[in-house]
Amino acid sequence: MKTFTSKIIAFLVFIFLSSPLFAVTISPTVIDINSTQKIVTLTFINDTGREINIQSSALLWKQVNGKDTYSPTNDLIVVPAIVTIPGGKSQNFRVTKRVLDGADVEQSYRLYLEDITPAFTDPKKTDPGIFFKFNQNLPVYYYTGKTNPKNSLKVSFCSAESKQTCVRIDNSENTRAQLNNISFKSPDGKPLDNVDANVNGTILSSSWKEFRFNTPANKSDTLIIKSSFGDFEVPYKK
Q1: 48-84: per-residue pLDDT in tens?
Q2: Phi and psi (nearest 5°) for 226?
Q3: Which CATH number fits domain 154-235: 3.40.250.10, 2.60.40.10, 3.90.1640.10, 3.30.300.30?
C-alpha cells in the first residue's frame, strides 16, 4: 500500500502538470458532514479523453505536537467505493460517516480518491508518452455541535532563522480554524506593500501549528492574522 506521503506527491504532480484539456474537476473540495447534512454528494468530472478507474480510501487526520498525522480508518463510507468513469462523463460519490453519533469536537479525515487506471501503451508507438494519474486528496469533517468560534486563537512566536519569522497558532475551539494569511500593518492602519507572508493552513480542533516565513525588510510592529475565526492583530516579536 502506498504511503500517504507518496499519495500527496502524486496529487501535487497532477496539480502542476495537468492542463485544462486533460484534467478532472472535483466539487466540493471540502466535505462537511453534520446533523443537517448527513450525506454529502461529491461530483467527479472526467474531462480527459480516456476512462479513469477510481478507488476510494479514508484516513483519520490529527495534529500531534504541531505535525499532521494520518492513520487508516473505517469511519467513512464512500459509495461507490470503486468505479470506472468514462472520458467526458461525471460520477457522483456519496460520502457519509459510518456511525452518525454526537460529535461535540470536530472529527477530521482525509478522503483519498486514487486513480488506479493501468498505464496505457500504444503498441503502434515506440514512445509511450506521458500518462497522468488524477489522484485527489480531500479534507472531510464531522461535527454536530454548535459553530460559535470566539476568536480564541492564541498566537505566539517560535524560534526561527535570523531572516525568518515563526508564528505558532493554538486553536482551543471545538472546530478547525483556517489560517488565510499573515501580513504586517503600517502605522496609518493600512497593510504594507509586499509584506504578505503568503502562508495558510488548517489548525484542527484543540491543536496547534507553526508557520514560518521570510521576514520582510519593511516590517512593522504589528501582525495582522486573517483566519476563518476573523481577523485580528498581535504585536510583532522576534
Answers
A1: 888 999 999 999 999 999 999 999 999 999 999 999 9
A2: -105, 120
A3: 2.60.40.10
